[in-house]
User: Which sequence fits this backbone?
């Protein structure tokens, strides 16, 4: 027989067993140390459309040109589009404590949307965001700091995910990003020489020529290992490399008339100007063989320039007749068929962005 006391104890035990228990605390999401590749993934989300992203250890410019801090960086490479040059955008992170007297001396920065925009000659050159641990710097081509694109740089600098550690899932996404490149993949590296390619037929639409289109024309005439953009302020240029930096052929469209000055020999034949330069400092400098012609619009010139160290010992690898055929190729002009620009974007050659190591 149960006593009143034992019955009360049993009731309390049963009541306690039916009481709702507190939900378990969620497990913390796994994290990992931030890397350049993770920076590249975040960069790709803010500025999509790059054909390549690369990075590694880097330095953040503090008080240029003498003050620097160590960190990691990633750069997105955007190829030229009709009427617009190639662009780069770089994001850097450093755990170094923020020091505004070094980073923004003499009121060289202005605050905007919670970050510092550093100015030079009253023009934005980079964006700096302070972190609880360290700082973020975003810099790049002039085009990224125009009125309509500066917000992208600011949003990237403010991205709260940039810090000493990041969500592990973000690192997994970064590792699978097909646009990530190694340092070797930014150069010609070990790229194998490919035979001349076939170009597509005309699409009908007309666009301003791009460096990629000019490289595609070159690749349809000569075997090449890789290609790149050789544009400067007064010319749009594409280049194919024949196996090394010193063996290459460039094709440019410019509104600056071709001048024989500076060449050892220059002549006009069949409406083409042919120039040669063989007076170079030593055998490591390439000879140049150039073919140029004025376009029918009366404003632009086509310039084909072969550079070769091999020519020190004999003939140029690409014969003069081939260079002439490139110069008179009817597909080349200041404006081209849209299909040619697309063929340049689809060119089955490695597209190099690293600076040349040869003149």
Assistant:
């Amino acid at each position: 027989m149960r006593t009143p006391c034992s019955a009360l104890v049993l009731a309390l035990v049963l009541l306690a067993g039916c009481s709702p228990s507190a939900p378990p605390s969620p497990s913390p999401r796994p994290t990992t140390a931030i890397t350049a590749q993770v920076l590249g993934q975040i960069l790709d989300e803010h500025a999509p459309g790059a054909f390549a992203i690369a990075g590694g250890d880097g330095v953040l410019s503090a008080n240029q040109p003498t003050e620097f801090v160590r960190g990691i960086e990633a750069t997105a490479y955007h190829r030229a589009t009709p009427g617009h040059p190639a662009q780069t955008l770089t994001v850097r992170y450093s755990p170094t404590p923020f020091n505004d007297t070094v980073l923004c001396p003499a009121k060289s920065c202005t605050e905007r949307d919670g970050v510092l925009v550093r100015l030079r000659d009253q023009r934005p050159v980079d964006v700096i965001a302070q972190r609880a641990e360290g700082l973020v710097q975003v810099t790049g081509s002039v085009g990224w700091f125009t009125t309509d694109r500066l917000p992208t740089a600011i949003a990237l600098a403010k991205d709260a995910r940039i810090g000493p550690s990041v969500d592990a899932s973000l690192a997994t996404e970064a590792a699978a990003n097909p646009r990530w490149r190694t340092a070797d993949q930014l150069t010609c590296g070990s790229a194998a020489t490919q035979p001349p390619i076939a170009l597509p037929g005309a699409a009908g639409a007309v666009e301003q020529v791009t460096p990629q289109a000019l490289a595609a024309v070159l690749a349809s005439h000569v075997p090449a290992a890789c290609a790149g953009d050789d544009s400067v302020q007064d010319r749009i240029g594409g280049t194919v490399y024949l196996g090394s930096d010193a063996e290459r052929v460039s094709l440019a469209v410019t509104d600056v008339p071709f001048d024989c000055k500076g060449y050892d020999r220059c002549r006009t034949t069949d409406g083409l100007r042919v120039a040669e330069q063989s007076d170079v400092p030593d055998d490591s400098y390439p000879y140049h063989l150039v073919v140029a012609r004025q376009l029918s619009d009366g404003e632009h010139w086509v310039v084909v320039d072969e550079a070769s160290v091999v020519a020190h010992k004999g003939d140029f690898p690409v014969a003069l007749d081939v260079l002439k055929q490139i110069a008179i190729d009817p597909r080349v002009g200041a404006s081209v068929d849209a299909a040619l620009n697309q063929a340049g974007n689809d060119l089955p050659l490695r597209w190099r962005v690293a600076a040349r190591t040869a003149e």
User: Anything to note?
Assistant: The radius of gyration is 29 Å. Helices lie at 4-18, 36-46, 100-103, 150-158, 168-175, 211-219, 320-327, 338-345.
